[in-house]
Amino acid sequence: MKAAHLCVSAALVAGLGFCFAGNSDAHDADTHHAEAKADRIDGLTPTAQWSANMSGMAAVPPMGWNTWNAFYHDIDEEKVMASAQILRDEGLADLGYQYINLDDGWWRRRDMASGRMVIHTDRFPSAETDKAAVTTFKPFTDRIHAMGFKAGIYSDIGRNSCGQIYAPEDSNQPQGSILEREVGLYDHIDQDIALYFGEWGFDYIKVDGCGIRAYGPDAPRVKAGKYRALTPLVDMASVARTDIPAVESLFQEVADAINRHSHDGDHMFSVCLWGSSNVRSWAKNVGNLSRTSDDITPDWTRLLTNFDTTVTRPLYAQPGSWNDPDMLFIGQGDFDADHMREARSHFSLWAITNAPLLIGYDLRKATPEQLELLGNERVVAVNQDTGGHQAVLAFHSADLQILQKTLSDGRKAVAIFNRGFGPVDASLTSSHLKMKPDSDIVLEDLWMDETLSFQNDTKITVEPRETRLFIATGTRELDGGVYLSEIPGSINVAEDGVLHPTHDPNIHRGVVPWSGTRGPGELPSYAGWGGAQADRSPFNNALRMGGTVYDSGIGILANSRLEVKNQGYSHFTAEVGFDDSASLRDGPLTFSLYGDGQLLAEEIVTGADQSPSVLSANIADAKIIELITTYDGDAGFALPVVWGNARLTR
């Protein structure tokens, strides 16, 4: 990290608005190495604690409605209340659609005398009081609450919002002087959060990051004198040029303020950093949702992009904090009333990956078929299952994917997703589902209301852009137990061994509306490469040790630590060693198993040529078990390791 970046981080943590980058010798390479090694060693120390976020009301992914995809900045009270009424009248509220969220476009200015936010009362007339500088959303949130809903609001972590820098015109942007138009949280975090949650009664906040990304001194609107410059902390094109500690610190400050000011802990905190800033590794400890990608659009190829940033990260989402590939776009573009197959795919994929189900459509225009889609109780139940396990890829290709998700009752939800290249006759096997091949497996189709039964394997035709979604019932492959890869919601990746966050090259990249074919095209921006994976290596290869492929297990880099909730199991077993893809071949590599902070078992692997070692221990009395892999050095991407067939049994 550059000295200037370190200076920015320190200044932000101290609450200062400036800093001076002194002699870079103070943070020379040796010091950096020592600090990084100390942080790594500290991160590998067993804690006997679950460190992922548990505050707020996110035991299951949130559901509701948001203004943005429907109206962008052109929002008003009448539109919002009309949509809330339709949710209630059509029975969608009873299914769990409970959040009514305002996005960008509600604010008029910041009052300079008090620092208080002023609402656009032309659009939200109930916010008006007898004092122009003292508007209030309390009547609005009271109405939302009286209807049985919860209310959400939008802000930005910087001084200014996304709309102020990216909107094509200013008709519904904040008004007044440069300082009055600084409506973001920056320098006002505690004051604004106290207002939004404590006084106005909101239950949900989405915090965007454009204010620390797009307001550099060379930005055209900054150069034109419309806004003050703020040196960017986020570089979407280069995670190495992003000040990750500073970004995390700002969002942590918001989380702390929400915990202070939300009523009875009833809150939802959505971190919107589009997969930048290595947010994958830390947002799960800070917020309830974390955006994994840039904005979705009503285009099929954009769905592929957003889906790809989430589908390979089930180990980075748990009850309390979820991956967020952005809001639903059902009703528009490639997901409109003439494209119901695509709309069902969109809904199915968001459901099985535990994405928030936030409708982004003017429901006054919704057809009965669209309302029926959004109200499919069985598909919603897949998303809202209390087990909290995001689906895991059982088959992965550029043409077709098969995902399986463990439900709280032991059954599996299964999605077979045709990404759009032509009809596919897909073979679904018992091994995909981790079920026994010689017993009946029953599939209940959640869209076609059909049932079929098979043993070993069956062929299912999937049309282009179609997702077949099932509930599978059968005899589990592992008697009296579960593979860790089947229960990602019970696992927290405390440390994943990634030393230098890197953009994931596997994400689908299409032509995006905001740039078209200008420039070089959309380049990788999601820093997810090399993270922990279920049933595959950190680089999306098969798990292999000594030439043997492991269908079940956890692939992760060395110098990593996993926290696992033990829910009544008595024994842990795994085969451990170097992944065959490791370019670093020499050990020693230590695999340690801890239960509630006490060492239960340990295996030392001397090198890649050693046969896998069996690590096993009694865990009956442990509530939190920790799987730690240590290597005396900074191995990074050179040393992927395998917890093969890692399993809990009774």
Determine the CATH superfamily of the domain at 496-649. Answer: NPCBM/NEW2 domain
CATH class of the domain at 496-649 equals Mainly Beta
The CATH architecture of the domain at 496-649 is Sandwich
What sort of overall outline do the alpha carbons produce when their principal axes are compared?
Answer: globular
Question: How many beta-strand elements?
Answer: 31
Query: Spans with pLDDT under 50 lasting ≥5 residues?
Result: 1-29
Largest sheet, spatial ordering of strands: 9-8-7-6-5-2-1-10
Number of helices: 16
Which whole number gives the mean pLDDT?
A: 93
Biggest beta sheet summary = 8 strands, parallel
Describe the oligomeric state of these chains in a short phrase: single chain
- Which structural class fits the helix and strand makeup? alpha+beta
Based on CA atoms alone, the radius of gyration comes out at 25 Å
For the termini, the CA-CA separation is 47 Å
